[in-house]
Amino acid sequence: MGREKHERKKRKREAEVQELELQKLLEKDGGNSEGAKTLAKAREAILGKPIRPGPKDRDNDVTSSEDSQPRKRVFSATDIQRIGFDPTAKQGKRLRDDEKTVQVLNELQSYKPKVKLGPRPGPKIWSG
């Protein structure tokens, strides 16, 4: 088997492995998450399939039922709070926290240990 043929087969196997991993990820949540939908659209665009059905394939009943359902949130509230953003926090509370931080920083800067500049203690040692 030639080197090029071997490399082609290797690339093909790697692509198949990646495809299987992608399928496993999409099957975990049933393809209902926003990320899975985005991946599916990107995959369809790469493979050349149409993203949306044409006007002949589209059903008016299907689109009306999609519009009536509320949109699912991409991130849950706990996920948003886990990354450090609290949507329920008010601006006044944040300002107080900033004031405390400024006060602590000022106290740290105002503390300066006394530095004694001068000769080292003890006798001088002369070499030579």
Question: How is this structure best described in words?
Answer:
Residues 26-74 are annotated as: Disordered. It is built from five helices and no strands. It starts with a helix and ends in an 18-residue tail after the last helix. It is mainly alpha-helical and 128 residues long. It has a domain at 1-59.
Computed over alpha carbons, the radius of gyration is: 32 Å
Tally of helical segments? 5
Show unreliable segments: none
What characteristic shape results from the CA principal axes?
flat
Main beta sheet strand tally, sense and closure = none
Give a count of the beta strands, DSSP E runs of length 2 or more: 0
- Class inferred from helices and paired strands: mainly alpha
Order of helices and strands: HHHHH
Mean pLDDT: 74
How much of the sequence lies in strands comes to under 5%
Question: What percentage of residues falls in helices of 4 or more residues?
Answer: 55-70%
Euclidean distance between termini CA atoms:
78 Å
In short:
The protein is an all-alpha fold. It has helices spanning 3-28, 34-47, 60-68, 77-82, 91-110. It has a domain at 1-59.
